[in-house]
Amino acid sequence: MAELRRGQVRNLVLATLAFALTFWAWNLIGPLASSYTRHLRLAPTQTSLLVAIPVLVGSLGRIPVGVLADRLGGRRMFAIICFVSILPVLFVGWSGSYGWLLFWGFLLGIPGTSFAVGIPFVNAWYEPARRGFATGVFGAGMGGTALSAFCTPRLVEAFGREATHVLMAAALAAMGLIMLVFSRDSPAWRPATEPALPRIREALEVKATWQCSFLYAVAFGGFVAFSTYLPTLLENVYAFAQTDAGLRTAGFSIAAVIARPLGGTLSDRIGPVRVLLISLAGTVVMAIVLSLRPPPELPAGTSFVLMAFLLGLGTGGVFALVAKLVEASRVGTVTGLVGAAGGLGGYFPPLVMGAVYGATGAYTIGYLLLALTALVALVFTFRAFREVPG
Predict the structure, then answer these.
(1) Residue 247: is it exposed, middle or buried by C-beta count within 10 angstroms (0-12/13-18/19+)?
(2) How high does pLDDT run on average in the chain?
(3) If you placed Cys at 189, which of 124, 182, 343, 376 could pair as Cys (CB 3.0 to 4.6 Å)?
């Protein structure tokens, strides 16, 4: 126990930093969507596909990455993801056509898989009573999307797109080396030796895997969808410039980042089910408010920030629920599956929003679909987890 406590803070901080940086890399396209649209003369559906495509690999890739994290450990897997992500980061910056952007944007999903490494990594460092806190703090690394929304457009204005991507590639190389040199796998962690496919099959047979996957698809999927598509939405609806839309998207992401560890900590105290009920009920209300297209700044800005905060609470609650329902030896594999569902939850909404806007010139139907989805998740949570202790 003493050895665990000595390494907890350092490894939690390093994992959170690596997560934040890889999430920044994962979201390099979204904040620049309007410039791609103008330069390449893209239709709304083409822009939506370009924004959403990195989410696909970042989602599905979490399944094998979660299995590999159980086998190789978080230290090595964080480093591998950082190093492998360098190539797509560079080539997205160098791509000059829509086809190549889609291809390298697809591979840009690789840094988005780091989530499936970090959850089992920090879980192993903390005792069960504090895992909600630990996964919540680690989950705050999703603030990398806020860094991207705020910093990427400004870096591009200052240095150009190619140089900005070179800087990100260098940062990933440095982070990979830092994880190899300074991080350690928990002494409580033991590598899985079973073949991967049976482990995935066993995880799929656990009811909690499917239950938490659905809830994470709503909570984290909603966050990812907004954090990647919000710059485009704000420019279309409120005519903000690219940097102004990026600033407001960063505020959205920061609210979710603050809420995620709070959701994990509250889950340790009042139970993850109550946290999820609060999150989903609030999301229903905010989605309906936003469907009415409130004026910019105070009404709309407050609504977006509250939406982000509520979704952040929910993401913290889901993995606190995973820690309660799933045995430690399966957490990595289950996390990969649940994380994949969350990422896929963020893949489809930008496509739907782009199609809705292209057809109607407004996003009302998209918001109402979000409200309906959150309502279904709210009812499901209330009925499925009534017997889960706090």
Answers:
(1) middle
(2) 89
(3) 124
Cβ atoms < 10 Å from Cβ of 386? 8
pLDDT tens profile 342-357:
878 888 888 888 888 8
Q: With beta carbons less than 8 A apart as the criterion, state whether 336 and 81 touch.
A: no
pLDDT above 90 covers a percentage of the chain that reads 46
pLDDT category of residue 60 using cuts at 50, 70 and 90: confident
Torsion angle (degrees, nearest 10) of CA 47, 141, 344, 77:
110
Structure tokens at 314: 């929910």
Q: Are the C-beta atoms of residues 331 and 236 closer than 8 Å to each other?
A: no
Give 246-251 contacts, CB < 8 A, sequence gap 24+: 246/31, 246/149, 246/150, 246/152, 246/153, 246/154, 247/149, 247/150, 248/301, 248/304, 249/30, 249/31, 249/146, 249/149, 249/150, 250/146, 250/147, 250/149, 250/150, 251/146, 251/301, 251/304, 251/305
Residue 13 in this model has a pLDDT that exceeds 60: yes
What is the average pLDDT across 365-381?
95
Both structure tokens of 340: 């994949």
pLDDT for 304-317, tens place per residue? 999 999 999 998 89
**No. of helices (H) and no. of strands (E), the chain:** 17, 0
pTM for the model stands at 0.78
Is 388 in contact with 277 (CB distance < 8 Å)?
Answer: no
| Three-state SS at 194 | coil
Determine the Cα–Cα distance for residues 335 and 363; give it in Å rounded to an integer.
32
> Cα separation of 336 and 135, whole Å?
14
Domain ranges of the chain: 2-186+193-384
pLDDT average, residue stretch 142-161: 90
